[in-house]
Amino acid sequence: MPDIQKGRNTVIEDGAKIGENCVLGHNVVIHSGVVIGDNVTVGDNTVLGKEPFRASNSATTNLQALPPLNIGSDTTIGASCVIYKGASLGDECFVGDLATIRERTSIGEKTIVGKGATVENGTTVGKKVKIETGAYITAFSRIEDYCFIAPEVTFTNDNFLGRTEERKKHFKGPTLKRGARIGANATILPGIVIGEDTLVAAGSVVTKDLQARKIYAGVPARYIREVPKEQLIEEQVFYEERE
User: Fold this and answer.
1) Which of 27, 94, 131, 160 lies at 20 to 30 Å from 44 by C-alpha?
2) How far is CA 1 from CA 5, 21, 138, 144, in A?
């Protein structure tokens, strides 16, 4: 049996695999099949490996067989989080209190998902990404390495606003290329591609694809100027070359 520190009323179902030196808070629920690496901390009242439920009229949730939730070593998960079966988190991630990460979502190493943030199903998030407090990442989004998403940013994936069956053929979340940065309270419309190292100012509404290494602001977002050289991702001390 691995060395695990458990709080009161913790439930670990048969078939869950937990590494060495893990700390589990009070009332934690770990469902069958969950795989947890070494040195992982899980806060009070968190649920790991939840099966998705489906509303009768949901257009983006499909009930299907899912692989186990996999949580990398040295990851910290806050209190009252829900991380679904079929998700995966790399090593050294941080998930803030009250965050939700849905099924078929991949989170890269050393990525932060902030307090109360939601990452919906079918989303891919790269390494060393920061998703700040209260951000909403819609289903079928793609966020590449080193991106920054400020508090209360909203991604969208449905141009039909929930009406007509035609919408189901076109669901697509935004794509953020490597190093893109999105300011607080910005809204990104469905299927938008934001170029590498592009910066979107706070409060903007992005209605079309944005070119790389440029700054955009406004409603709708418009070109302002080039991103200064010293702010480019390859100029930063934490940047690692692509493999």
Assistant:
1) 131
2) 12, 11, 39, 37
For 62-97, how does the pLDDT look when each residue is reduced to its tens digit (9 = 90+)? 667 899 999 999 999 999 999 999 999 999 999 999
Domain that holds residue 95: 4-235
The CATH number assigned to the domain holding 21 equals: 2.160.10.10
d(CA 219, CA 207): 9
| Global model pTM greater than 0.85 | yes
Q: Is residue 243 part of a domain?
A: no
154: Cα within 13 Å, side-chain hemisphere = 9
- Position 201 in a domain: yes
Number of domains in the chain: 1
Measured between alpha carbons, how far is 146 from 150 in angstroms, rounded to an integer?
Answer: 13
